[in-house]
Amino acid sequence: MIAVQLQLEGGQRIDLRLREDAPELITLFQILASRGSNEVEPVEKFLQLPLENGKSACSFNSRQLVSVITEPPVIVQLEMPKAAEPAPAASEPANSAAVQTAVVHTPRFLLIDDFLSVDEHQDMLVYALSHEADFESGTVEGHASPHRQNKVIMGFAETAHSRLLQNRLLTWLPHITRGLNVDLFPVRHVESQMTASNDGHYYRMHNDAGSEEAGFRSLTCVYYFFRQPRPFSGGALRLYDALEQGGQRKALGSFREFEPVSNRLLVFRSTSYHELMRIRCPSRQFSDSRFAVTNWIHKSAEQNPDARFGWGQLRCGVVPPQFVS
Amino acid sequence: MIITVFVSTHSAQDQWRAELLEHSWIQAGQSGELVRLVACPPSAPLPMHIKARVVRTLPYDPHPFLQDHFPGYNLPAALLEWLVTERVDASLLLLDLDSVLRKSFDEEIAPGGATGNRWEAWPAGSAAESEPFGLKKNYSKLQEYCVNRKLKPPRVEFPMLIHSSDLLKMAARWLELTGLIRTGVSSKSGSTPDAHKVAYSLAAAEYRIPHRALKLAVGTADKKANTAVLSYNQPVKSERGKVLWDCASYQPWSHADVTTARAGAGRSLLTFLNSYVTLRETGELLNTRRPRRCFGVREARLPDRMLLEIPGVEEPMNLNASASAIWNLCDNQRTLADIADELQKQFDVPHEVLCDDIDQAIIQLHAGGALDLDIVLTGTKTGPK
Asked: pTM of this prediction?
């Protein structure tokens, strides 16, 4: 049996269990897949699905369906009639259909609390507060400025604070890749950026592997730190489900939200769509910002035994032989 | 619940140590679960145990990113992986592989504090060498990697009683510091065999986990064996100082010469070892183990074999004819010795072969979740006195 969660317009969620080969499951995917395609007519129908082993049922119009989450992930072969199919040639069967595969991805993530020690965490905060003048407005490749509003410190990657964080992160790396179900890979580069987000700041939905420059980003690791008690509200990170179809991936409306917690690391794949929700910080004081260090771990296509990371001892440019399954 | 955990590799040398530790855990009447973490490659077969749950972890000797050969990396790495993977929430009793349990630990520990064995050989520096952490001068390289060098680390070593949430907080730092000490600290001998022990103390201090230092373990040279744990990483000597027994050269399961051993913890250890060897030889171990069928296990009988459907397990377990015969006799009443007697009546098979078959079948059934083993303690305890 497959655990299925439907998200409908207005935020309503419906949980049900369906057999792997249930026709209702195919219908649900056909509805979603038809919306993103220029080639087929959007499927619109009245749906009734059984709940509690058929003791009750839920009914809705397919237009209301926003997303389908399945556990375990389900891959379906969808057969959908094309919208403007030219007249079939004499040799083709009249009911020729385009076969497409649609996969819904619910991104995996890992949370590590108490990522740094008490003093290290405090030291990171002191660093941020003492470098207020170095923070500049953040930019995004290929987007106009309203896509993102927060402040970034340039050159953070060269600091001892960045190396401290990187060394700890790479110590965790084999466990992180295992938790995310990713094979351990040779590291090419660890990109690092410290940000400060204050009142009204946000970062619209995007993924971190979107641009050519960022093409080798494999893992996104966000370390949060800020004053206690938390001097702001909002600022959650939303991690969106995505639909992959015909080599294209697009974000769905369903998501999982993570409230910022100081001294916590959140890790997910850089291909995952995510969004920083708007922050409300009544004092507007820089020191009350939500600070974060984002590390992007770049995957290398080749092994490099000479590459050194962290404090300079870690040789993460090669996959250790004992980790190759 | 207290989970007793120890870390090992899959080598034969580690196997006899693990079995002896398991036997001492049973004899001491320790409650809770016994877990053996085995740091080994994915292709290596996992050892099996009659009572301990065996968990495979990634091998960290050599360290994957430092290429430094040091068995001490396996300790923090295996514990970290296990805690992350199983989301453990319990009191943990951490034991060295080279140790046996003499008395049970009954009091659980709450998050926010731990208890460890007092480490007398802590590498303390002179008064002039106050930083970092009051360690000897050769640890000065750590200044570059540690934010607060004035902390006073707890001078403790295994055995350790600590809550899993506290260990999870500090485990990655423990692993990281072990590497930083190994690569950054110079010593006269050119190696730092205690790097993982120093690193544990530093990580505990950095993560503000206070430790009580108590006398929890004795070594083989101690005159009294009055602690809960007996550690045998040092050889056992005679009254005249001659080495009688050394774990590094011990041939499992041979008898050790106790008669000339110096009185105290060393002799106590050898007496315990010999009693376990005798139990193995005579098959008496079977008398102390009573298999109990796990709840919800369903069986399907086929002409030449049997299938067991175990709750929560996808694939049914396949039992051959002899394993089926053994399973049929597991009625929650018979001990393994009773089962051996029954089978002896039915089949004309040498006793040793029968005992081996029973051992293998029971280990398979236990590891697969079909059986649990109750320990029947008869007569006097055989734990090291």
From this structure: 0.80
